[in-house]
């Protein structure tokens, strides 16, 4: 898993038609686009894919479609998490994950479990999952931070845990994980604008939203950093910085869809409760994007 999850993973959006059905034709275009531009793996049905709004049959169709279009070109990661441990484990046992290499599972949201609850939840996930598990810590969305101590406890307790996608924004927390983790356990950036910082400390890569839009430039930045060419990587990071801020200013994946719409890869449609970015923000995103492509 160490080599498979190194570099740039793209958290794929789910394009929708105006009638809110899944736009598979646009998804195919995006998969080909990011693959040809040099991303290292695809993450299907992460939260960027608006998975809380997808029905079970839609998730099944998406997983099968991405597998078919990918044709084994890139490793695939399947997003599956939730705040009901029993239900998450049931889905892990029943979901078809043929040709997928790992599961990305977010910390339980809203419930705000204690560290012991997080530990027991993920140990149950590890037992139920047919694939290696990438932990996902994103307290800004879930309402709970999984501390370095809990992450390390899990990483040392079971080899089923192969990595953590860290989006806490806490570099001290990440440094502790990097210092004390098992050798084969990876720390993956979950924050596009902190990716270079995390790579400089020893992180292995990123699961990126921006890579939906600028897969080539973002992947080159990541690869240069992994090669130790930090001066080149820093130049790319600074060029991307403002665009990345704009992409998240109106919520995710609304900004990414606005950018992709301007490139003719999909439309801006989101499912409620998400809405498109404002016309003013869209104009700023488009103007900044033009300086980068």
CATH superfamily: Aldolase class I
- Beta-strand content: 5-15%
Domain module count:
1
Please count the helical segments. 12
- Taken in chain order, the helices and strands follow as EHEHEHEHEHHEHEHEHHHH
Describe this structure as you would to a colleague:
This protein is α/β, with parallel strands linked by helices and 293 residues long. It has one domain: Aldolase class I (TIM Barrel). The chain has helices at 24-36, 56-70, 85-94, 115-128, 139-142, 148-157, 171-180, 195-201, 215-226, 230-249, 254-262, 279-290, and strands spanning 7-11, 41-44, 76-79, 102-106, 133-137, 161-166, 186-189, 205-208. It has an 8-stranded parallel β-barrel with strand order 1-2-3-4-5-6-7-8, surrounded by 7 helices. Helix 6 runs parallel beside helix 7 (171-180), helix 8 runs parallel beside helix 9 (215-226) and helix 10 crosses helix 11. It is globular. The two termini are 32 Å apart.
SSE blueprint:
Blueprint: E1 7-11, H1 24-36, E2 41-44, H2 56-70, E3 76-79, H3 85-94, E4 102-106, H4 115-128, E5 133-137, H5 139-142, H6 148-157, E6 161-166, H7 171-180, E7 186-189, H8 195-201, E8 205-208, H9 215-226, H10 230-249, H11 254-262, H12 279-290
Parallel strand pairs: 1-2, 1-8, 2-3, 3-4, 4-5, 5-6, 6-7, 7-8
Helix pairs in contact: 1-2, 3-4, 4-6, 6-7, 8-9, 9-10, 10-11, 10-12, 11-12
């Amino acid at each position: 898993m160490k080599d498979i999850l190194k570099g740039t993973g793209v958290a794929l959006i789910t394009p929708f038609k105006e009638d809110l059905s899944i736009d598979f034709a646009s998804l195919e275009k995006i998969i080909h686009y990011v693959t040809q531009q040099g991303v290292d793996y695809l993450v299907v049905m992460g939260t960027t894919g608006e998975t809380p709004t997808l029905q079970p049959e839609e998730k099944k169709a998406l997983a099968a479609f991405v597998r078919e279009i990918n044709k084994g070109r890139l490793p695939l990661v399947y997003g599956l998490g939730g705040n009901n441990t029993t239900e998450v484990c049931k889905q892990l046992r029943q979901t078809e994950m043929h040709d997928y290499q790992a599961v990305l599972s977010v910390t339980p949201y809203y419930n705000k479990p204690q560290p012991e609850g997080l530990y027991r939840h993920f140990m149950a996930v590890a037992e139920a999952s047919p694939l290696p598990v990438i932990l996902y810590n994103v307290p800004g969305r879930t309402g709970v931070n999984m501390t370095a101590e809990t992450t390390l406890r899990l990483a040392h307790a079971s080899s089923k845990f192969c990595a953590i996608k860290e989006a806490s924004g806490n570099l001290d927390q990440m440094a502790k994980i990097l210092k004390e983790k098992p050798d084969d356990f990876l720390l993956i950036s979950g924050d596009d604008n902190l990716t270079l910082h995390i790579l400089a400390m020893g992180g292995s890569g990123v699961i990126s939203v921006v890579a939906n839009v600028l897969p080539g430039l973002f992947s080159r930045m990541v690869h240069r950093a992994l090669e130790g060419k930090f001066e080149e990587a820093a130049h790319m990071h600074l060029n991307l910085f403002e665009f990345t801020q704009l992409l998240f200013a109106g919520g995710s994946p609304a900004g990414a869809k606005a950018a992709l719409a301007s490139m003719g890869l999909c439309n801006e449609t989101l499912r409620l409760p998400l809405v498109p970015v404002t016309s003013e923000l869209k104009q700023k995103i488009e103007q900044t994007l033009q300086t980068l492509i």
